[in-house]
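Are you able to produce any protein sequence you like plus the matching backbone structure tokens because I've never seen that pairing?
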Amino acid sequence: MFVGEIRDSDSASRGWIAMAGLIIVVTAATRFYDLGSRPYHHDESLHAKFSYQLFRGEGYRYDPVYHGPLLYHLTALTFFLFGDSDTTARLYPALTGLLLVCLILYSRREIGDAQSVFCAALVALSPTCMYYSRFARNDIPVALYSLGIVIFGHRYFYKKRANDLRLVAVCMALSFTAKENTYITIFIFATFIGLMLSKQLVFGSVRPMANTRSLIRELWPDFLSAGAIFAVIYILLFSTFLTNPWGVWEGVTGLKYWLGQQKQPRIPGPWWYYVPLLVVYELPAVCLTIIGSIVMRRFDLLRLLMVHWTVLSFAMYSWANEKVPWLGVHIVVPMLLVAGIFIGDCYEFGKRHTRRAAIVCIVASVIFCSHAGVPVNFRSGADPKEMMVFVQTTDEVNRIINEIEDWSFKLSTGLDTKIVVQSIASWPLSWHLRHYTNVSYPATVGYSDAPILVLDYEKRSQLDPAFNDEYVKRRYPLRAWWTPEWSKLTLHGAWRYVVYRETFSPTGSSDIYLAIRKDLFPVATVTSAQRGATAASAGEAAGVDQDGPGEAVKAVGMLRLGWTADGSGFPGGGFSEPHDIAVGPDGTIVVADSGKNRVIVLSADGTWRRAIGEKGSGPLQFSAPQGVAVDSGGTIFVADTWNHRVHAIGASGDTSWIHGPKLRDEGNYFGPRDVLVASNGEILVSDTGNRRIHVLSPHGDLLRSMGGEGKSPGRLIESVGLASDDDGSIYVADTGNQRIQVLDPKGTFLREFPARGWEEYYTEPYLALDEERGILVASDSKNNRLVVYSSAGRYLRDISKFEGGSLLNPTGVAVDNGGGLVVADSRHNRILRFEPGW
């Protein structure tokens, strides 16, 4: 039998009120003090900048990569109320960190006075909860909403008050609109309910089955109103208050992206990844939770749920492929509740020596958490030696911003100062420089006369020699990290790390140059005439178009192939996130219609021919296919991305062969994005997640592999688009290295040139080669443009706008047999064709 009824009395002792007040004050101080001082993490800058854009009226559209809309809307509201700053962008998670502690104290009728105080104290002092309450991410808010579901759900179970169920609906809606890992939380709670029902272990009494109908009649109005509340919150946020109705469906399907990411490691780690983090930062709570789960005196329904939540959270996040410190929040919060309840039970129900032991435990926890939590939160929040600090922006970025502000003042150009940011520093600088009106990022630096440049140190060999003559450069570390080499860990090393944070393996960083034009210094010797001459020679050496790019291309005879606004006349409806395009020898156009898990075949003029495939993993079934190619015999090859394989479909429409998901002795495919038929008939597959290119025979046999992870010539990071010329040279969109590499048919490096844009992995650029004109086209989806180069790598122009419209997230590109350019305008769900002359 379970005990632990909810007490009806709201009265609290003076002692409880005093302790609760002290805990709230400490929590507020640790969450809000000096909130904006730590440099903005890459992810924080994304969240802050997108919120700023929403605040400025530039709109918002849900992208599962960056999680739900709630953070952006509430942060935009914060900007409206208090202005935009490094501090205000973190106010929302800081406030939810405080509310989490308040909610624990509010639940004293469920868990007890002493228990609520001890739980609140542990959460208030937890280094993990403290750190991520001061971090512009969704994890602490989701922890708050998850606990709200538990507390108000528990109250509704006993009291049957409609308002409690409505509060459950509010918490669920806020959690689902905050982050997709809410599905994990709901799964954990659902399994607990299922276990309890299956054993008929219900807290209190179980109604006979004969009363089921009357129970439904009694409760359905409550659930109906709660469902309406959930729907209203969900729809308003995902549709950005009805300005983007399609966003509601995008929110529903957002889980698909994360399920795809879980099929192969995106940010990998061992299953025990969270164990060292818990030991280093939460050791007392870990010990108390283990002991309390075994010997806890009062195993009522709520306590049993807390233990279940803790154990299953650890199991689920240890099993999940993505391993990052902030996900540890979802393990730590229920663990701290179990630990606090156990100490509270010992204090309230134990004998004198047990009560003293409880006091000793809480004092030890305070000492340990102070040692572990104060430095990482208030002294070394950007120090990579802290395991909780994950590829963090360094403190040097604040110096860079200060120096840019100083030069803007000296030049009297203020916020109009011309600044060029090359690549990796785009985040977080796009947030820090948001008020500057003349900033280019991410930019490929061939030549620029901007007074301030921020350059990638690792790409210094690609810079023109003129930069060395015209600019004073200073090197700064941008991001730093520590990857523990556990094989080097000794018992003594573990002690030195826990006590003194002495690492047992080296740290690393990615660096940048801050470059200031020499003629701005009082001792400068470079004249404007010399600089102009240098600019001309630099431009000529780099092959830059001195006349500059045109903003728009005037399309000649632009056609929307196989597309109408409502999908009418198009079997199965219109396109849904078309990704790649291939053109057959007879002019047939093949489209990877990724959102509908199929391949579409059109005639050369865009007339519908057929659709191939459906959702699934069998023959002629796909999971978000993103690459297509056609050989001279009409065989279609499909990069079946999230089935992790390549599918060959004969001209008759039947499966010829399937390669994958496993390659013998070569590991697994991981999200292949593109496929190409080379001039010699070999099939090239861009095995994106594994940073390599597989070469297959026309019959699907693995011949060889190229690439491998790295930044050196011939190595790849997040390779996507492929193209080849008649000589067999292979052009590779090496996205993570922000370059296009050219390899020979055997994979030997020939040359490379920098790519414009591609500031992040999710750009998914594709390539098309027009040999007759000597032109290479590369898509830059995140910047809503195509970039045109000469085949030798000379930048020619951008294509983003045209008569009658503009591109939105363009991906696949192909040159058809008549010299026209065919484009997958992905977010507009259409295929465009620009006739020769584009």
Notes: The first strand starts at residue 392 and ends at 393. The radius of gyration is 29 Å. Confidence is low (pLDDT under 50) at residues 201-206, 523-559, 562-567. Residues 262 and 321 are 5 Å apart (CA to CA).
